[in-house]
Amino acid sequence: MSSAAPLQRGGHRIMASLLVLSDTAAAILLVADLLVVCGSVLLRFLFNAPVEWADDVARGLMVGSSFFGAASALARSENLGVAFFIDMLPVGIRRVVDSVGALLVTVIAGYVAFNALKLGWLTTGQTSGSGLPLELTFYPMGVGALFMTIFALDLFGSRPVRDMIAGAVATGLIVGLYLAWDFLLPASVPSSGTLMLVGFFVTLFGGLPIGFALALAALTFIWVEGTLPGVIFAQQMARGIDNFVLLAIPFFILVGYLMEANGMSVRLIELLQRAVGRMRGGLNVVMVTSMVLFSGISGSKMADVAAVGSVLIPAARRSRQNPGSAVALLAASAVMAETIPPCINLIILGFVANLSIGGLFVAGLLPAGLMALALIVVCIIFGKRPVSAEEIEPQIPMSGLWSGAIASFGLIFMIFAGFKSGFATATEISAFAAVYAIVIGSIVFRELSFKTAASSFVQAATRSGLVLFIVAAAQSLAFILTLQQVPHAVGDMMLSLSSAHGTWLFMLLSIVVLIVMGSVLEGAAALIIFGPLLLPVAIKLGIDPLHFGVVLVISMGLGLFAPPLGLGLYGACLIGNVPIEQTVRPIMGYLGLLFLCLLVIAFVPHISTALPRAFGY
User: Fold this and answer.
1) CA nearest to 116, candidates 225, 192, 230
2) Is 284 exposed, middle or buried (0-12, 13-18, 19+ CB in 10 A)?
3) d(CA 372, CA 363)
4) For residue 397, what pLDDT is reported?
5) With left for phi above 0 and alpha for psi between -120 and 50, is residue 383 left, alpha or beta?
6) pLDDT exceeds cutoff 90 at 212
7) Which residues contact 97 (CB under 8 A, 6 or more apart)?
């Protein structure tokens, strides 16, 4: 026992060092990306000297940063998964299922690492359109996936030996039974598509992190068919995030973390508390308006929920409000803010469905305004006045609050003015927004030190790695679905139903599909898989694509924060430190209100299309 303890401590030190290395690599690649994008824009604008290789370098850096960030997130066990069903299992069975999941994560990560490194070797000597070596994209991806494999193996090995053996035996039995079935009765074996679908839902509801469940579904098809090489899988994962548009995701997430670190978020929320906190239901009104403003700055809903919830949930407790109701309103406000630019899900939908991201940003404003107004009215009608001003009002000088508010509104103005003027793309605007947040925090407020800035870059790289790994895995599954002609079959079915019963049925079915899939998948995955399936049908039926895109994103948001499966609701409960059971009843009321708003938005297209037409989209 005495010799095992130092061994264990040595192993922990090695893993801790590898995690620091992974964090550092992810953050440095993100910093380099920021410098490349900002430098490219400045050279183009000031000296009319565009840098031809900038886009290729930026995309390659993002792929590497995403996989290192995803590895760090895995090491910290931050990956999202559906825990509702597995939590109902007996303890012994749950431990075996957890061990199987940990082993599958290790296998998947190892497969990605091997094939990404192999792809780097196969593409050696090949160049991109601007002349840069292709292997510079795949080797960092492979090394990041290798870190992911090591962390996954460590998580599997940290379990009791009995659980590891049980997990390995259970996995071996499943594989062995399939191989025996295929050998003895090959004609009765389900198709690869059926096995892919069954495997996906079994592993998803078994608690496997969503990105890995999506990747395993694609791998199941590849392994069963045996005709596609593994490098195709790695290539599709890289292709899923190797796009300049998606760089806006890590940059806007970075803006959110920098705002929290430099004091802008606290100042803005506290100013709102001073302005409307004393009115009836004032604290709840502050929560809704804070989410509106923060969503206009940070593209990450969970970053917005964290920034607003960390300030206002404690304030709700001090004012003797039910914290479960406060968290429910926080989650409902996040649904409302899903279409407020620069929302990540609008960026992803624009990318996968080939829609104007600027057009989607503008189209989402009035629908979000309608839902925000509905929530505010309900907060005022059913709210109470605070007992005393001290419970809701922070004791900070007004000058300090106004400086934060002015800086925040300056950031919002920069984002919208950038889109309207055409000075830069969504990605380039997000990069300058991050630089703005750094300058304000370090020079104006003097609250952003090098250490806190570095921490913000690490957090942003980790969070964006989580999101983009899911995007990459969803792209690999979307590729398999396309091979099986699933989009064509779904389109034909939806068209036949709509021609028989009207366009309204197609709209309702689309809403239901996105709510259901948004509750079991992370929002990005639901949009990547179902956006390209449903949007061509909507266009054939004469539905405005920007309008339909807004409806899809709101529907996905309702599912993402709906109990009992909604992963967004679990995140809000963790931030508010409230059991999910306390939020179910109040959030169902809020979600019911937002669902009625969604129906109005869906069947009154002018709400979504008026502003895009006015702005020329």
Assistant:
1) 230
2) buried
3) 15
4) 58
5) beta
6) yes
7) 86, 89, 206, 207
pLDDT average, residue stretch 153-169: 92
Please indicate whether residue 470 or residue 598 has the higher confidence score (pLDDT): 598
Instruction: Extract the tokens encoding 159.
Output: 């379990």
Tell whether the torsion through CA atoms of 292, 295, 301 and 302 is positive or negative: negative
* Sequence-ordered alpha helix ranges (H) in 88-209: 91-122, 135-157, 161-184, 192-205
Is the separation of the CB atoms in 231 and 111 below 8 Å?
Answer: no
For the segment 582-606, the average pLDDT, to the nearest whole number, is: 93
- Of 584, 558, 582, 580, residue with least CA distance to 571: 580
CA 177 to chain centre: 36
Q: How do the domains of the chain map onto residue ranges?
A: 12-242, 246-614
Q: What is the C-alpha radius of gyration for the chain, rounded to an integer number of angstroms?
A: 24
Residue 236 near residue 242 (C-beta atoms within 8 A): no
C-beta atoms surrounding 320 within 10 Å: 11
User: How far, in Å, CA of 239 to CA of 218, rounded?
Assistant: 15
Report CA torsion sign: 525, 526, 531, 533.
positive
Report how far residue 417's alpha carbon sits from residue 421's, in angstroms, rounded to the nearest whole number.
6
Structure-block tokens of residue 223: 């392994």
**Which pLDDT score is estimated for 420?**
65
**DSSP category for residue 133:** B
The type of residue at 172 is G
Distance CA 371, CA 351 (A): 25
d(CA 110, CA 71): 12
What would the mean pLDDT of 246-259 be, rounded to a whole number?
84
Q: Which of 73, 250, 220, 244 has the alpha carbon at shortest distance from 145?
A: 73
Token pair, residue 548, equals 């339909």
Two tokens, residue 466: 């989580």
What are the tens digits of pLDDT across the range 290-341?
A: 888 877 776 667 777 877 877 788 877 777 778 888 889 999 998 998 888 8
What residue spans of 484-522 are helical by DSSP H? 486-501, 503-520
Phi, psi of 11 (to 5 degrees): -65, -40
pTM for this model (two decimals): 0.86
- The tokens describing 546, both together, are 């920007």
3-class SS letters over 167-198: HHHHHHHHHHHHHHHHHHCHHHCCCHHHHHHH
Nearest to 477 by CA among 212, 250, 231, 242: 212
Which alpha helices (H) appear in 383-485, and where do they start and end?
Answer: 389-392, 398-421, 426-439, 450-483
Q: What DSSP designation does 443 have?
A: I
Give, as one character, the DSSP assignment of residue 278.
T
